[in-house]
Amino acid sequence: MKSTNHHDERIAKMSFASVYPHYISKVEKKGRTKEELNEVIEWLTGFDEEQLKEQLRLKASFEEFFQKAKLNPNAHLIKGVICGYRIEDIENPLTQKVRYMDKLVEELARGRKMEKILRSES
User: Fold this and answer.
1) What is the mean pLDDT of residues 112-121?
2) SS3 category, 24
3) Does residue 12 contact residue 65 with C-beta atoms inside 8 Å?
4) Is residue 23 part of a domain?
5) InterPro entries recorded for this chain (predicted)?
6) CB 47 within 8 A of CB 55
7) How confident is the model at residue 85, as a pLDDT?
8) What gap in Å lies between CA 116 and CA 77, rounded to an integer?
9) In a domain? residue 64
10) Residue 56 belongs to what domain range?
11) 28-34 long-range contacts, CB within 8 A, separation 24+
12) CA atoms within 13 A on the CB side of 9
């Protein structure tokens, strides 16, 4: 499935703050915690708790959010299908980063062990 320019633009303009509560709800329904969610987000973006709060306060779009992020060098190890898209085949770099986060949140909600979610190349 190939994403369209319209789809990519919609994702870029979407507010991270509007999606974050859904991430929290998704993981808490499955017995995981907001703290674990924030750990996963920090691993992917480099944002500590205060920086994450600032992004939420600013209502940063995903484009602004990922412009300020320091993507984890092992993010390319995130593979699979999310929202009908194979992550490693997504051509738009921003859309791919958003899907990385979606995939990590899904893995957390599904009960995957944290050390597997926070990939390392060992």
Assistant:
1) 87
2) helix
3) no
4) yes
5) SP1917_dom_sf, UCP033199
6) yes
7) 85
8) 11
9) yes
10) 5-110
11) 29/109, 30/108, 30/109, 30/110, 30/111, 31/111, 32/108, 32/109, 32/111
12) 3
